[in-house]
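Sharing a chain and its predicted structure for anyone who wants a worked example. Both blocks are below, sequence first, tokens second.
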Amino acid sequence: MLKSLQNRITELKVIDLITHFFFFLLIVLAVFYREERLVADASYYFFRVVNNESFWVEHDRYILILSQIAPWIASNLGFKMGTVVLLSSIGHVLFFYVIYLMTRYIFKDIYAGLILLSIQLLGITSGFFVPMFEFYYAMGLLVLFYVIFSNSTHKLRHIPLVIFAFFIITAHFYAIILFVYTLLVYAFENKDFKIKKYLPYAFLIVLFVLLKPLVISDYEKEMSAGFLNSLANNIYDFNYFKSWLSYIASNYLDWAILVLSTIGIMIFKKKHLFLLGYVLFLIGLIMMVNVSSYGFHLSRYKEQVNFSLMFLAGFTFVYCISLLNTNLLKYSFLALISVVFIFRIQSTWEGGKQFTYRLDEMK
């Protein structure tokens, strides 16, 4: 009994140390690359907020408001532009760090921080420099939703949960798929199939699907048409699949290792139904992202398209670590995800140099 308690305390300390350490490194990167983190959409929304001194939302993706809080406050307080840029860059990391602090110290979940780190690191290099992407924020909020949904018994918990669900569902189509996935994980892992518990969220999804066509933007129409055109006209044969595997081995080997490790843990823990669901979602998302963006180029946009695969892998891998009782296995997999984080931070550090060079050229 005493040994088990000591092991638990050690586990808490190790995971807390890992989580705080990598959040610290992300903040350091955010400070160092504060100007570089205004690439593409990031600069567009940043200057919309600063110039108008109000939030700016397009395509009914209201979660964008959460990414604009820091520059909105700073600009309304009359800070100098350099300070606004700095606070904006740090704010993108602090959003996830605040969620971590809530999940860890209010709801006592020790693993959520690792999932939040994977959102910011797994499969991401150039994406670090476009930090306001609504999908990133939606998945951060999904982690908070999942922890409260799983752990809270407060009678009013459904009020914030419905609000969070609204932001997640309206953020991105892939966010809806992953929202459903996390609910299914909870339901089957906890054998909790009380329909009324899930009805508010099912209702929100149905409502969104019915109403979205009425307010769909031209951009979203183009993206939908592009998806259908890609599905109808591009060739997805065995040669394409081999090329995709080569692309993954070259650019997302860390992701592939986590996926294979997750499958191994599920087999070891005899989680056969969970494994089936995971593989089905994985295959479905792989097919969808390849239709959304055909080919194997590397770009910020391609990273964003592939992000649904990254969240699925990171969330499920960390969840599976929490299932392990053997210290050797648990710490081995914690070491593995730490190595992945270090690799991605190093890649981001190197990738940022091209944006620094571009800024220097402009100056």
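Comments welcome. The chain has 16 helices and no strands.
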